[in-house]
Amino acid sequence: MQLCDVVKVVGSSQLQDFPWGALVVDLMNSFLVDDQLLTLQSDGSALSAAIGSLPQEQQTFLLAATVDTKRIKLTVPSVAPPDTPPLPDTIDVVKEKNNRLFNMGSLAFMGFLTIVALMLFSNISPEEKITFENAKDYLMVLVDMFKTYLGIQSGS
Predict the structure, then answer these.
(1) Are residues 69 and 97 in the same domain?
(2) Distance between CA atoms of 68 and 71, rounded to whole angstroms?
(3) In this model, does residue 126 exceed pLDDT 80?
C-alpha cells in the first residue's frame, strides 16, 4: 500500500497500533526537522500534516513509497529527491573492501616470505623436523636481527 493509503488506513488511530507503524515513522522522520518529528503515538492527521509541510519534490517521493503490510517492508522509489544526500557508491564500497583484503593478503604474504628467509638464514630447511635446538637457533637469529635493527649491542 502506498503512503497516501497509509494515511487513510491510520485515520484517527495511532501508528503504534500497526505493525508497520515504526517503518512509517522512521521514513517520515528522515525528512522532517527536529521540531516536527513524528512518534508512534502520532495519528493519520499528524502524518498528513507532516507530509504537507515538506517541499513538493519530497512529497512526491514519499507518496510513491510503498509499505508491504504482510512482510512489514518499506519500498521507496529508486530515484531520490534532489535534497537527499547521495548514498555511498557501491563501486567505492567494493573497491575499499578489496583494498582491505589486498592489504591483509599482502601482510600475510610478507610474513610468509620473512619466515622463509629467516629459515634460510638460520639453516633450517622446511623438510627438516623442527626440534628444540633448531627452534632455539631460529629464535636466536630473530633476536640478533632485532638487536641489529634497533642498534643494541651485545654485552660481551
Answers:
(1) no
(2) 6
(3) no
In terms of domains, do 37 and 63 share one? Answer: yes
Would 10 be classed as within a structural domain?
yes
Q: What is the pLDDT of residues 56-107, one digit of tens each?
A: 888 888 888 888 777 777 777 665 555 655 555 556 666 777 777 677 777 7
Q: Which domain holds residue 38?
A: 3-75
Grid coordinates representing 57 are 519534490
Same domain assignment for residues 125 and 65 = no
60 and 99 in a single domain? The answer is no
pLDDT band at 15 (very low <50, low <70, confident <90, very high): confident
Q: What is the pLDDT of residue 133?
A: 65
How far apart CA 68 and CA 15 sit, in angstroms, is 15
In a domain, 82, yes or no: no
- From the list 124, 128, 146, 145, the residue with the least C-alpha distance to 136 is 124
- How wide is the angle at C-alpha 131 spanned by C-alphas 127 and 134, nearest 5°? 80
Beta bridge partners of 14: 43
Asked whether the beta carbons of 44 and 10 are under 8 A apart, the reply is yes
> Around 128, how many Cα atoms within 13 Å sit in the side-chain half-sphere?
13
Among 56, 108, 107, smallest CA distance to 83 is for 56
Number of domains composing the chain: 2
